[in-house]
Amino acid sequence: MTQLTAEGEQAAPVGRASDVPSPAAPSPARAAVPDASLAIATHGLTKRFGSQVAVNDVDLRVPHGAVYGFLGPNGSGKTTTIRMLLGLIEPTAGSRSLLGMAIPQQATIALHRVGSLVEGPAFHPYLSGRANLERLDAADVLADPRTTRVRIGTALERVGLTAAAGKRYRAYSLGMRQRLAIAAALLAPRDLLVLDEPTNGLDPQGTREVRSLIGSLASDGTTVFVSSHLLAEVEQICSHLGVMRDGRLVAQGTASEVRGGGTVSLHLVTAQPEEAAAVLTALGVQSVIADVGEVRGIPGELEPEAIVAALVRAGVGVRSFTASSPSLEDLFVSLTGEGFDVSG
């Protein structure tokens, strides 16, 4: 495994100890048998730093071939979870497996099939991009030195850094440094790629390039686990989502399942808002609110066609009618109580 981390990382405090339920003590009964059907699986994964709980009883389920978006505000436990998955820190309780192999028991085998970028790239500033990759590859005891040049060239080309391969790392922009880190994670064929904020510092064009790269990796069968704070990015590339809050996993599933967990709302534009509100209330629409030129409510199990038909029968003019699930941003706010960056 190629592993890149920033120096001096410390876990962010997650509230007072009294505010967070104490995790269960480690126990053989809580140990989970590795699930070969999942690329990443955890059972009761917990990490405490003194009296503070950074990650609390997390059960991740990441299917093979998925692009899994790992979401959460700063300090929610995302990076600590990733560091436990990769064996960089030991959990206080719980178990984890990668590619059906238990960590740390089978880490040597499993991690060779995993590429990762955690927190930020760290390279030798006075070496070129290519020379940095050569040093990393030489440190991998399982890498074949006979194919080093070809593999490095392929990785650099895949992230768009071939032309800058001979330039010193200290002269790289932040976006170029991020792409070089991804290239380092691709020096060998990977079944699983774990990326912590892979588009950090990238301009819109660079973000699109990384998004396209993740899509191409997924289409080749690689499972991608990506922690991100950009909802627009996550919406476009992720097939599965997990949302963290205060160290807990508060939602998980396919993107449609997670988004489908929110309440559908309706928005009616009409010149007769009071009359429309009366009809909707009589139909059983909940939380009806009439305003100038519009009415909002929660239809529950009522079909949109039936609602519109009832309005027309009552003589209410319908200029537009929309029934929609909450956006990913709305869902995130409802799950975590915090705003989120929606820029791409």
TrEMBL record:
PANTHER family: ABC TRANSPORTER, ATP-BINDING PROTEIN. Signal peptide: none annotated. Residues 16-30 have a biased composition (Low complexity). This is ABC transporter ATP-binding protein. SMART domains: AAA. It comes from the Bacteria. The keyword ATP-binding applies. Residues 40-271 form the ABC transporter domain. SUPFAM superfamilies: P-loop containing nucleoside triphosphate hydrolases. PROSITE patterns: ABC_TRANSPORTER_1, ABC_TRANSPORTER_2. Residues 1-30 are annotated as: Disordered. Keywords: ATP-binding, Nucleotide-binding, Transport. One of its GO terms (molecular function) is ATP hydrolysis activity. Belongs to the ABC transporter superfamily.
